[in-house]
Amino acid sequence: MKKLLIYIVIAGTTLLTSSCNDWLDVLPKNEQVSPEYWKTKEQVEEVLAQGYHNMRLTVPTLIYWGELRGASIYAYSGKSKQELQNFQLTSSSNECKWASFYSILNVANSIIKYAPEVKRQDETYHESVMNSNMAEAYFMRAWTYFTLVRNFKEVPLIVEPYMTDEYAVDVPKSSEEAIIAQIKLDIEDALSTGAAKEMYDDEDWTGMSKGRVTVWALYALMADVCLWSEDYDGCVRYADMLINSTSPFRPAFVEDPEQWYSIFFPGNSNGSIFELNFDQSRNQSPDDDATASTYPSPSNIYPWTQSTVAALQFSNAMCKRLFDEQTDTWVTSNTVRGYGNTFILSSGTVIGNSNTEGYLPFKFRIGGKDGLSTTRSYKDANWILYRMADVLLMKAEALIWKGGEANFAQALELINKIRTRANVTTLSVQTNAVSQENMLGYLLQERDLEFAAEGKRWYDLLRFGRSQNFKYKDQFINMIIENNSTVSASWIRSVLKNTDAWYLPINQGEIDTNPMLIQNPYYDVTAN
C-alpha cells in the first residue's frame, strides 16, 4: 500500500484514481462507503487518509470564517467575502455551505463504526492500531463539529456513516449543548484507550507527528472546547497536560525568538501540535503545475505578490496594531513577527508614513529566518490548527475568566512569555488593581498579533462577547465597529445587538434538501 503521507499530500487523487486500489470497486464517487468495503487494515488507513484530505480542502473556508468577521483581515474584493465580513450574508451565499465539513464527518463516522469489524476479519489489524486509527477519527469528528458549532451554533448531529442513497437526510438541528457534549465525549473516547500516539516514526515523512492526530492534538482540542464552553478548570487541566508534560515526544513552546521562523518554514516545528501539511515536492506527475498539489495551502489563499489590490489584506486597524509593535528600524526589525515576517507592505505603500494601511500577510511566504531575502519557492505552507503558543494563551484566558489577582498574575506571565519570544516589550500590569476587562483586552491583543491571519480572530472575539452570559456584549460590538471601516457603525450595531446574527445562516440548499432543518433565527425571513 502506498505510504499514508502520499495519500494525504496529493489530496486524495491516488485514492480516487489508482487502478490498483480496490477502493474503486466499492467506493462510489459520491463518497458513500459500502459496508462490504471494510476488509483490511489498509482500507481503514485509506479512508482515514481521505479524512485528512477532506480537512485540507476546508482551509479556504477556515480562513474566511475565522478571519473576515473579526476585521483584522479584510476582503478587498469578492462580493460574498465582503458580505461575510460586513454581516450582510444571506442564506443563498456559497460562503455558508457546510458540505465539505460533513464529508469529513462521514469519513470519521465510517471509521468509528467499521474499524472494529475490520479487526474481526483481519488478524493483522491489532487492537492498538485500531484504537489509534479510531482516535484520529474521533478527533476529526470532534474538531469538525467544533468548527460547525462555533459558526452555526446548531447543526444536525450525525454520528452514523452515510452508506447508501437511502440514508435519511431529514435530520433536525441539535442544540449547541448537545453538540458540545458529543465533542467532549468523542475526545474522551479517543483518550480512554491510551492508544492515541505521542509520535509517528516514518523515514519518508519526518513531519508525520505534526501532520497526523496525536494525543497532544486531542489535549489541545479539548482545552479549546472547554474554553468555549466556559469550563475554565477543564481548559487549564488539559492545557497543563501539554505545558507540564515531560514526555520526550511532547511539543514544547520554543523561547528562542529565531525559532519563530521555523513555525512557518519549513513548518512542523517543535512548537507545533497539529497542522495540515502541504508539500509541493509530492507532485506525482511531471506535467503538474508547480502548485497543483499545494492548493488550498494558505500560501495560495493569501496574496503571494505585493499587490495594492490584493484580495486579502490586513485591515487598517490591524495595520496600526502591527505598526505599533514594529520597531523604528524597518529593515532590521527586532520583533520577529514584524515587517518581513508577519506582514509586508503592498506595492505603492510608502515606508515612514502613518502605516495604517497597505499591509499584506507574509508569514505563509517566509522561506527562512532572513525574512524578505529568503522566500518560499512554492505555495506550500502548512495550515496550523494548534501550536503551543495557542495553548499557553488558552490557559491565560481561562485564568482571566476565573478572576482574582493570583490568576491574573499567572495569566500575565503566560502572555509575557509569548511577548518575550516575539522580542517585544513585556507588559507591566498591576494585577491587584487591573480589571478583568482590561486583562482580556491584553489577551485578545496578544492573540491577534501572535496568530495574525491564522484563522482564530473571530472565535477569540466571539468568546469575549458571549461568555459569562454576554458580560462584555457591548464591548464586543464596539470592538467590531472600531476595526471594521467598510460598513457603517450603525449597521454593525443594529445587526450585532441580536446575538443570533453572530452566527452564519444555513445555506438555503441545505434547507431545501432537508425538510427538518430550521433556519437560524436571525436569517429566517418567514418569521419577520
TrEMBL record:
The keyword Transport does not apply. It holds the Pfam family SusD-like_3. GO terms for cellular component: cell outer membrane. It comes from the Bacteria. InterPro entries: SusD-like_N, SusD_RagB_dom, TPR-like_helical_dom_sf. Residues 22-226 form the SusD-like N-terminal domain. It is found in: Cell outer membrane. Keywords: Cell outer membrane, Membrane, Signal. The keyword 4Fe-4S does not apply. Residues 271-523 form the RagB/SusD domain. Belongs to the SusD family. This is SusD family.
